[in-house]
């Protein structure tokens, strides 16, 4: 054992030495040599720069490894050092000790020597540490500044300062004005923010910033933002609501303060214009108009009481300051101050109350104060919390006085101490609820104190249009993992568990680097025990494991990191036209895996972002294109935008580069022709219908309203109406199509509430409204919400009338029946067998059926009780029920609901149920808590959870444009994906794609998705045949600014006699003959014939098309199509490598559709090239789409869809050639047969064709001149190959066709098709001898030939018989000649 321990320590030290991490000369031993060592194991640099440019000290943060290799006495190894010392890792064996520690502190300029001591028992090792704080050599630096001061909506007025000549990045630049010049993330760009008052008296001034670096003052000059800029000459404003100075104005909803709208004749998109109060200044927001007449808006913010505001603006004739006194009254909130009593108690294990239950705790209180539709906060400790509005927890009463009861599972880590429970409004002041109360109770169950262990981890950058990585971690936890945190605030649950269990499992997290960065990783178990690791921290030494993030997570950037930036469109016309554009960024220094994003800062895009709740909403990923060797970004500038330059951010991990910080020569995005519409639709009129009129059977009750949107036009909206007494809720969704009259600019609508005669008098009010225009600019109103934007309120036109104008007063006859108390729960059951639900399966459906005693006044119409499903981790899920019927015999009202739980929901632990939201017609509501259900129906108040990891589940995808291309699919159990079925709703067609790349179990990349403007459906099939859920993807419409090269064929002469087959077969166009189906060919002389579907070949995608000869039913013709090989060609089109397809795997997809897969293997660990061939037989005339082209599939046509994945080209100039063989054979050789071939261009679809003829039939193949290459549409060529021997003769016509494939990176898609024709005429090239003679002539020739042969035979026989006589006769003749 001791030998093993020594070997472990020795191996660890060898690892350090052989990785170049030896004791630095600036860290040296000064004590007598002994067994204790201190090592700079992370190759840290001991040279530091000041944190600020003119600082006289430097900060340091270093980690070291202390080792005692002779710790036989099991002494504890410790370290002494002045300053902050933190132990990061420690371990002991019987013979050795290891201690990893961190020291943090500051040193002055120059060399700083200190001592570090490591102590084990009585042995001490002292080391001298020499750290140097270095002055920056200013002579080596170059500082630049923008020529003009810039403006940013998030920053204000600023100047960008670049520091070149040093790799180090200061946190701040010092300057003589004591203002902070901050570093812009991890870059050499620094931002100086100007106080906007500078411009009020110095419009055309040149300003100076005095930067101080190492005691040297560097003066930088820049010009005013308004330097020689034409200023407005006229300006007027409106205050909404109109008021008398000093009169009190009630907010139009919580934090919906008054507004001011300013109109001016500005020639610049950003005139100097702001609202000021108590040293707080607010910039106005561009809302409407064009150059020369712009409208701006801002709010007076929620500064309550009497305040004096000032509207400050720069105009041609000088500074304008207008005093605006304002007395704002805050909108009233409900209060928890009316709580009469509060109870917090426990149930289940460890409690005397109902100990048979699972561990629960209950909160109960009674409130005499009015409830006003706020969302409530339920919180246990700091981690467990959720928001829920009415009806959760409301067990009986009405909004004037109510009882509240909510039950939760007891998290294990709270059972050993106080349970502190907080209840309050979710409206916050900072991070604190406006109103809340808390209570606590002590419990007795003990917890466990063993931390979880990280055994391994890895990172994988995901391809596709995203900024995501896949982080994989293997974690062992005795108690079971509860959650995982990245950067100590992004929380992940057990839905990230992909294999094993929460006690020993593998977790995969898809994480967006561009927005969050990745700095630390932690994990918490069910008792709250945890580990926490930051970059370069040791996790374990045996085996050695250090937590380290990839370099591209933390690399520094600056504007010089980009060699070139290019837009395909620099000048944009956004007048009713969307700015589709592409950005290319070239960089020789940035890692291709670096996540980057483009954030547009035009006012409309920023409106989108504010709706999304964060800057993520309007961002576009910048991804590396390995084919172009460039970073690329397809992005969209919204139409009807602000004129002038479009600013943008390039966002990287933990930092940004602002477009105005780029080189002055960098291209700009300029909007020329436009009209700004940055205001969503608004209500011109909003009138309650029959408000205050006693309810009867004749009148309708609701609202009539007009919606206006002066430029983009109204598109759709939603309005929520609530009852002030019983909290009843009605949601109305509507669109332009629902208008009573009008158009998108001005239209009228009406909504009605289902008010019955048996009712309670109360006021109905609008609590939520959202209106969208045709450009997705929205107007939003939420009566109670945190930080609303008053400038987007659709009720701006009603401010003068006040919020009371939205009140609908319903007056009812008093109800004689007493119906105040809650009705008993008669039944409650769920659908989960054995009360265990697997939240890792595709089917996570749960159904609830329940009933109550019907209230005497009846159940209120169109109001749905909600079953709440709550997990131990305070996760909440709602199941909204429907009334299925009222049983008048038993006096019950019956309800049901069905929902599918989110993946991993609640695991590990139980899910408990409660039901709230019953409303009667007397104005009272009620519900039943988990405890009530447990008492009445003990088998139905909860279910346990399990989490399987084998069934594939699609949870989301990357965004995809309508132009198609690659798509990254996210989910679970995707590692064994075999193929993805894609259904296109636009065309009704289907295709099967083979997975391109899988990323663990959590993601799979497919390519290519076809171009489509409408939603398409995907489904994954695994190698074992398991099918995932069906998932719909909504593409984002995009028009590529780079027009694809569309191949077109040259015009052809119209052939045929009659021309083009006559008027019934085709007609002559300027480009050649256009044929009517079923006729085909250059002269419309060939006709498509119907043949049976071919028999599926299970061995290879070789297909036989068979038909009978027209004149002889016995004789048949066979057409054969084969995929032969894939050849690599050099730049001279010479074949350098031939890859033959040896073994195919065939799968039947459905009737007449099959898929074949083979692979080409390579050495040197290169991934296989996968060839996927899908064959589809069309039985009827069908239009399909391929590569932006509509192709007509005739009946009895066989289409091949061919996908070829990444191929390792031997040379960057090489290409590929896919060889296809087509063959047509006549089986009866004795018949009159001729064969022929023709290869040329089609007319109608700009393709190429091959036509193989035998007798009066043809095999016709069409080869489109387009391919989808790495998601892009490219033009390709198809050639007839003469270098391959064919078997053509008089009864067989055979040809090899080569599809020329350009060099690519990921995937190429091809789409040829074939069919059989009958020919009216053909060109013969190979015929049997005299095969053109008639049959009688043939017989005559045969008879003559036979007779001739007989004569020849007789003559020969006679010659043989009489050869002696002939010889004598010859001799006699000779003698006579001599004489």
UniProtKB/TrEMBL annotation:
Q: TM segments?
A: 1339-1360
Question: Per the database record, which ranges form the ComC supersandwich domain?
Answer: 1107-1317
Keyword Cell membrane listed: no
Which residue range or ranges hold the DUF7035 domain? Answer: 677-812
Keywords in alphabetical order: Membrane, Transmembrane, Transmembrane helix
Top-down, what is the taxonomic lineage of the species of origin?
A: Eukaryota, Amoebozoa, Evosea, Eumycetozoa, Dictyostelia
| Domain of life assignment | Eukaryota
Protein name (record) = EGF-like domain-containing protein
Residues in domain DUF7949?
Answer: 1054-1088
List each copy of the DUF7034 domain by range. Answer: 826-948
* Every DUF7743 domain range: 450-552
Which InterPro entries does the UniProt record give?
ComC_SSD (IPR054484), DUF7034 (IPR055462), DUF7035 (IPR055463), DUF7743 (IPR056645), DUF7949 (IPR057709)
């Amino acid at each position: 054992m001791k030998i093993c321990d020594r070997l472990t320590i020795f191996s660890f030290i060898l690892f350090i030495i052989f990785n170049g991490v030896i004791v630095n000369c600036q860290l040296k031993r000064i004590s007598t040599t002994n067994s204790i060592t201190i090592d700079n194991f992370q190759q840290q640099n001991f040279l530091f720069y000041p944190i600020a440019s003119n600082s006289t000290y430097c900060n340091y943060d270093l980690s070291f490894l202390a080792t005692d290799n002779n710790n036989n006495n099991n002494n504890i190894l410790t370290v002494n050092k002045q300053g902050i010392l933190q132990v990061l890792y420690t371990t002991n064996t019987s013979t050795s000790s290891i201690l990893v520690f961190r020291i943090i502190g500051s040193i002055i300029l120059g060399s700083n020597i200190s001592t570090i001591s490591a102590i084990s028992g009585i042995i001490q090792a002292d080391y001298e540490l020499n750290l140097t704080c270095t002055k920056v050599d200013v002579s080596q630096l170059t500082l630049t500044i923008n020529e003009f001061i810039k403006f940013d909506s998030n920053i204000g007025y600023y100047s960008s300062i670049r520091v070149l000549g040093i790799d180090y990045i200061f946190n701040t630049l010092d300057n003589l004005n004591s203002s902070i010049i901050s570093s812009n993330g991890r870059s050499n760009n620094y931002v100086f923010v100007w106080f906007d008052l500078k411009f009020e008296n110095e419009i055309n001034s040149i300003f100076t910033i005095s930067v101080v670096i190492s005691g040297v003052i560097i003066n930088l000059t820049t010009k005013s933002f308004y330097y020689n800029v034409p200023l407005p000459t006229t300006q007027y404003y409106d205050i909404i609501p109109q008021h008398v100075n000093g009169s009190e104005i009630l907010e139009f909803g919580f934090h919906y303060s008054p507004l001011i709208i300013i109109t001016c004749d500005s020639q610049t998109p950003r005139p100097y214009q702001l609202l000021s109060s108590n040293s707080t200044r607010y910039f106005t927001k561009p809302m409407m108009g064009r150059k020369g007449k712009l409208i701006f808006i801002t709010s007076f913010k929620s500064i309550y009481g009497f305040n004096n505001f000032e509207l400050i603006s720069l105009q041609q004739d000088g500074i304008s300051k207008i005093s605006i006194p304002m007395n704002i009254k805050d909108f009233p909130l409900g209060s928890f101050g009316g709580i009469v009593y509060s109870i917090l108690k426990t149930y289940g294990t460890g409690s005397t109350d109902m100990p048979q239950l699972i561990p629960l705790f209950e909160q109960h209180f009674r409130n005499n104060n009015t409830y006003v539709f706020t969302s409530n906060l339920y919180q246990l400790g700091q981690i467990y919390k959720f928001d829920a509005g009415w009806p959760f927890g409301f067990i009986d009463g009405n909004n004037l006085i109510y009882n509240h009861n909510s039950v939760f599972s007891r998290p294990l880590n709270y059972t050993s101490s106080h349970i502190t429970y907080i209840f309050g409004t979710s409206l916050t002041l900072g991070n604190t609820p406006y109103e809340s109360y808390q209570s606590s109770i002590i419990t007795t169950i003990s917890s466990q104190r063993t931390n979880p262990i990280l055994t391994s981890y890895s990172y994988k950058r995901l391809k596709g249009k995203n900024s995501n990585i896949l982080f994989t971690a293997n974690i062992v936890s005795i108690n079971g993992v509860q959650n995982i945190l990245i950067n100590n605030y992004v929380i992940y649950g057990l839905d990230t568990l992909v294999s094993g269990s929460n006690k020993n499992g593998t977790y995969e997290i898809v994480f967006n680097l561009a927005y969050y960065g990745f700095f630390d990783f932690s994990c918490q178990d069910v008792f709250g025990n945890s580990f926490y690791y930051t970059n370069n921290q040791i996790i374990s030494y045996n085996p050695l494991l250090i937590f380290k993030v990839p370099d591209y997570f933390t690399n520094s950037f600056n504007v010089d990191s980009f060699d070139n930036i290019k837009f395909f469109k620099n000048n944009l016309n956004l007048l009713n036209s969307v700015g589709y554009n592409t950005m290319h960024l070239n960089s020789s220094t940035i890692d291709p895996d670096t996540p980057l994003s483009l954030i547009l800062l035009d006012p409309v895009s920023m409106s989108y972002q504010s709706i999304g709740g964060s800057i993520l909403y309007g961002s576009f990923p910048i991804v590396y294109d390995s084919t172009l060797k460039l970073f690329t970004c397809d992005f969209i500038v919204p139409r009807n935008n602000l004129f002038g330059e479009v600013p943008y951010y390039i966002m990287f991990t933990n930092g940004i580069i602002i477009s105005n910080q780029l080189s002055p020569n960098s291209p700009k995005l300029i909007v020329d022709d436009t009209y700004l519409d940055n205001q969503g639709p608004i209500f011109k009129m909003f009138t309650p219908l029959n408000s205050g009129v006693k309810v009867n059977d004749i009148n309708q009750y609701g609202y009539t309203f007009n919606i206006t949107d002066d430029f983009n036009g109204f598109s759709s909206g939603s309005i929520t109406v609530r009852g002030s007494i019983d909290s009843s809720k009605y949601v109305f969704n509507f669109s332009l199509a629902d208008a009573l009259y009008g158009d998108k600019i001005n239209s009228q609508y009406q909504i009605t509430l289902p008010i019955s005669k048996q009712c309670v008098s109360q006021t109905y009010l609008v609590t939520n409204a959202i209106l969208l225009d045709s450009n997705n600019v929205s107007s939003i109103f939420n009566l109670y919400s945190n930080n609303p934007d008053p400038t987007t309120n659709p009720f701006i036109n009603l401010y003068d009338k006040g919020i009371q104008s939205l009140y609908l007063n319903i007056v009812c006859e008093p109800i004689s029946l007493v119906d105040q108390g809650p009705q008993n729960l008669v039944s409650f059951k769920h659908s989960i067998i054995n009360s265990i639900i697997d939240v890792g399966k595709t089917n996570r459906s749960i159904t609830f059926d329940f009933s109550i005693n019907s209230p005497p006044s009846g159940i209120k119409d169109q109001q749905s009780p909600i079953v709440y499903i709550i997990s131990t981790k305070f996760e909440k899920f709602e199941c909204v029920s429907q009334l299925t019927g009222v049983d008048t015999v038993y006096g019950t009202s019956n309800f049901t609901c069905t929902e599918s739980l989110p993946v991993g929901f609640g695991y590990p632990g139980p899910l408990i149920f409660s039901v709230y939201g019953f409303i009667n017609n007397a104005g009272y509501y009620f519900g039943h808590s988990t405890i009530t259900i447990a008492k009445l129906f003990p088998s139905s108040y909860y279910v346990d959870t399990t989490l399987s990891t084998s069934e594939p589940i699609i949870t989301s995808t990357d965004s995809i444009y309508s132009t198609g291309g690659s798509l990254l699919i996210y989910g679970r159990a995707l590692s064994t994906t075999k193929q993805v079925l894609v259904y296109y709703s636009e065309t009704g067609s289907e295709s099967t794609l083979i997975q391109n790349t899988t990323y663990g179990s959590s993601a799979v990349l497919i390519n290519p998705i076809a171009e489509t403007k409408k939603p398409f459906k995907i489904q994954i099939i695994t190698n074992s045949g398991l099918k995932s859920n069906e998932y719909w993807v909504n593409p984002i419409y995009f028009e590529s600014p780079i027009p694809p090269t569309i191949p077109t064929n040259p015009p052809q002469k119209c052939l045929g006699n009659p021309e083009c087959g006559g008027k019934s077969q085709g007609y002559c166009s300027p480009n050649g003959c256009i044929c009517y189906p079923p006729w085909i060919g250059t002269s419309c002389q060939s006709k498509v014939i119907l043949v049976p579907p071919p028999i599926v070949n299970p061995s290879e995608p070789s297909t036989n098309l068979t038909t009978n000869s027209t004149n002889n039913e016995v004789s048949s013709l066979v057409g054969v199509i084969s995929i032969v090989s894939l050849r690599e060609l050099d730049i001279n089109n010479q074949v350098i490598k031939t890859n033959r397809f040896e073994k195919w795997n065939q799968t039947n997809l459905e009737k007449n559709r099959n898929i074949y897969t083979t692979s080409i293997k390579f050495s040197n660990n290169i991934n296989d090239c996968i060839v996927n061939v899908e064959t589809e037989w069309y039985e009827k005339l069908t239009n399909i789409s391929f590569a932006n082209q509509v192709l007509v599939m005739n009946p009895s046509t066989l289409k091949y869809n061919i996908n070829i994945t990444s191929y390792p080209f031997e040379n960057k100039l090489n290409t590929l050639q896919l060889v296809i063989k087509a063959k047509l054979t006549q089986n009866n050789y004795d018949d009159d047969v001729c064969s022929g071939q023709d290869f040329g261009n089609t007319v109608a679809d700009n393709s190429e064709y091959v036509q193989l003829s035998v007798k009066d039939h043809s095999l016709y193949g069409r080869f489109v001149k387009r391919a989808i290459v790495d998601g892009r549409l490219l033009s390709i060529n198809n050639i007839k190959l003469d270098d391959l021997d064919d078997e053509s003769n008089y009864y067989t016509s055979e040809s090899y066709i080569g599809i020329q494939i350009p060099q690519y990176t990921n995937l190429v898609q091809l789409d040829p098709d074939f069919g059989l024709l009958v020919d009216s005429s053909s060109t013969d090239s190979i015929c049997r001898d005299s095969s053109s003679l008639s049959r009688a002539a043939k017989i005559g020739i045969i008879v003559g030939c036979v007779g001739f042969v007989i004569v020849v035979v007789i003559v020969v026989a006679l010659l043989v018989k009489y050869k002696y006589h002939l010889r004598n006769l010859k001799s006699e003749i000779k003698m006579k000649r001599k004489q």
